[in-house]
Amino acid sequence: KTAITVINPQDKKTSYHDIGGLSTEIARIREMVELPLLHPEIFSRLGVDAPRGLLLYGPPGSGKTLIARAIAQQTNAQFLNINGPEIIQKHYGESEEMLRKVFEEAAKYPASILFIDEIDALAPNRETVLGELEKRVVGQLLALMDGVTSRGRMFVMGATNLPNNVDPALRRPGRLDREIPINPPTKAGRLEILKIHTRFMPLAADANLERVAAVTHGFLGADLAALCREAGMACAREAGTGIQQKPLFVHFNHFLTALSDFRLSTM
Ligand code: ATP
């Protein structure tokens, strides 16, 4: 596995319809990203700097990667995805070089979104970090960010669970200067997410997703996706033992089984 994943816009489709409970966040992010990517000339005519980056913060599994991917898709931008800890750990001593290459690669496309997951690993607060290497990597990332506008239509999205661990210099104007919280979903959000992940599932009439949403407080998008998968598995197991007759339907009790397994595995 390499540290950089390049996904072509036409490869795997991710649309806004695949993301539940985050419509306000998506609208805000689209506002910031679409204009600079699709109409950079507007900014140059106005003589103002186009936004170059933003920071998404929230717990892992809440949909940050999903949003970045969907926006790339919708703007026909090349999506490049790197992971902070991977760059640091696997390319120790060469991290700066790796970063430079990634930015170079991103600048090759007419439009691109560079998504840096767990960016706090690449740009930790320099006041609290002592290592020379870490300081150099932060410095390199800042320099690369500052070079972005002159290189074309590129937008950088950083994601972190720990926004306060990110070096403040990276959060200054001209860098990742917009910050969007990606919070755990509300009950209505959970319902949207459950609907997305049961789209292709034959649901029985008693499989009331509102009830499932009501009892999954604290579940993130990734948890709900796993829950739906497990409900399907519970149904499949029954089918395998002949308890359920064909045609197969996923019932509310399958969600309950999944839920109890889920609670056990995360306790
Ligand atoms: P990480 O920081 O670990 O990368 P993340 O916040 O980027 O986490 P994603 O990778 O986007 O989370 O989510 C993982 C999976 O969970 C997605 O592929 C999707 O199946 C599901 N998921 C997460 N959030 C949502 C959501 N809001 N709506 C629908 N599915 C979601």
From TrEMBL:
<comment type="similarity">
    <text>Belongs to the AAA ATPase family.</text>
</comment>
<protein>
    <submittedName>
        <fullName>Transitional endoplasmic reticulum ATPase</fullName>
    </submittedName>
</protein>
<feature type="domain" description="AAA+ ATPase">
    <location>
        <begin position="50"/>
        <end position="186"/>
    </location>
</feature>
